């Protein structure tokens, strides 16, 4: 089960609440179970947990699931300005390929729930949209929303939109299938093995009209600082993280860490929930940090790194790393 406790800006919740209002859903119904008040929702500088946004999405799907293509409609609201400093890093990139790389590098600064990663091929780039970790009740909505938002971002980069070669989707053909062609410029293939957008290799070198090397560099620096700030831990979460860091190779379970902190497991779970996280999320966070460091600074094989991080087999580590970084460990190492 995925833990949706990572932090993100509130703009996405604001956009979707507005969508609900325009379809006649009261704001109180949009915010039910999110832990946010209407006043808090209006704060543009607020940071929320992904689980809070997921609660709002569930409210939309529960009350407005009868609206055809609701997710596609939601995605058309995510203009590049919604992404803050990341939006500027993307549009100031020199070409389309670089813009994609920046977007995927800082995917945690977007509002995506779908895990997106690139697969280069001889004459095209395939953007895979892995939705398997997304809860089934909101999977279709979030896949449509995230794919539609990505397409809108691409359209805003160029004076003329670049249609993909192919759009493949896992789900069955919906009644509003024609809407996909309107938004993506290509007929969608349904019932595919995976969700995928294929881009012609030639368009990857298309220059961006607002390319600016210094602006991109400054924007990326801010993206890094923002990511670091959101990963920073305080309170009980910081103490748990420090405990895990002391012996990552044997990865203590929550009961052991709770005993070390003189807390019951139930109290530790509750305290971490209050701080917007969980034990599993913190353990993953430590493993991700150490994996990056070992891949870039240590002359160890992937198998050796997996063992040091407490994985019983390398395949489990490789799968986790692809989920974190969108690429396998060996490709990450070669790119550094």
Explain this structure to me?
The chain is of the alpha+beta class and 336 residues long. It has helices at residues 11-22, 27-31, 38-41, 50-64, 70-75, 85-91, 96-105, 136-157, 177-184, 213-231, 235-246, 254-260, 265-274, 279-297, 302-308, 314-325, 329-335, and strands at residues 7-9, 47-49, 115-121, 124-130, 166-169, 188-190, 196-200. It has a domain at 233-335: Homeodomain-like (Arc Repressor Mutant, subunit A, Orthogonal Bundle), CATH 1.10.10.60. Strand 3 and strand 4 form a beta hairpin. The longest helix has 22 residues, at 136-157. The two termini are 31 Å apart.
- Low-confidence segments, given as residue ranges, are none
What would CATH call the homologous superfamily of the domain at 233-335?
Homeodomain-like
CATH topology of the domain at 233-335: Arc Repressor Mutant, subunit A
CATH hierarchy, class of the domain at 233-335: Mainly Alpha
What level of helicity do the residues show? 40-55%
CATH architecture of the domain at 233-335: Orthogonal Bundle
Integer-rounded radius of gyration: 21 Å
The SS-based structural class is alpha+beta
How many E strands?
7
Sheet with the most strands: spatial strand order: 3-4-7-5-6
Q: What's the helix count?
A: 17
Amount of beta strand: 5-15%
Biggest sheet, open or closed, and with what strands and sense? 5 strands, mixed
From the N-terminal CA to the C-terminal CA, the straight-line distance is 31 Å
Strand and helix order: EHHHEHHHHEEHEHEEHHHHHHHH
Shape: globular
The residue-averaged pLDDT reads 89
């Amino acid at each position: 089960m995925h833990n949706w406790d990572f932090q993100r800006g509130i703009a996405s919740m604001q956009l979707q609440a507005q969508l609900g209002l325009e379809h006649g859903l009261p704001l109180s119904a949009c915010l039910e179970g999110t832990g946010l008040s209407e006043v808090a929702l209006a704060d543009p500088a607020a940071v929320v947990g992904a689980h809070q946004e997921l609660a709002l999405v569930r409210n939309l799907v529960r009350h407005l699931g009868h609206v055809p293509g609701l997710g596609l409609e939601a995605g058309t609201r995510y203009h590049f300005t919604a992404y803050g400093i990341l939006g500027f890093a993307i549009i100031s990139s020199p070409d389309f390929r670089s813009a994609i790389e920046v977007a995927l590098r800082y995917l945690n600064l977007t509002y995506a729930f779908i895990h997106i990663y690139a697969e280069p091929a001889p004459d095209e780039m395939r953007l895979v949209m892995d939705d398997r970790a997304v809860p089934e009740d909101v999977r279709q909505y979030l896949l449509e929303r995230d794919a539609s938002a990505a397409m809108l971002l691409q359209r805003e980069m160029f004076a003329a939109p670049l249609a993909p070669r192919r759009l493949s989707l896992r789900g069955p053909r919906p009644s509003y299938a024609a809407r996909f062609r309107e938004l993506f410029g290509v007929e969608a293939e349904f019932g595919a093995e995976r969700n995928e957008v294929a881009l012609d290799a030639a368009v990857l070198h298309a220059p961006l009209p607002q390319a600016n090397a210094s602006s991109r560099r400054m924007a990326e620096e801010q993206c890094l600082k923002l990511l670091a700030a959101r990963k920073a831990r305080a309170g009980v979460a910081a103490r748990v993280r420090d405990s895990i860091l002391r012996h990552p190779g044997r990865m203590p379970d929550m009961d052991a860490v709770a005993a070390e902190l003189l807390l019951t497991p139930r109290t530790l779970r509750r305290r971490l929930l209050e701080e917007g996280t969980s034990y599993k999320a913190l353990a993953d966070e430590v493993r991700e940090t150490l994996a990056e460091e070992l891949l870039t600074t240590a002359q160890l094989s992937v198998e050796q790194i997996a063992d040091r991080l407490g994985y019983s087999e390398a395949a489990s580590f490789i799968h986790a790393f692809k989920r974190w970084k969108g690429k396998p460990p060996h490709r990450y190492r070669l790119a550094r």
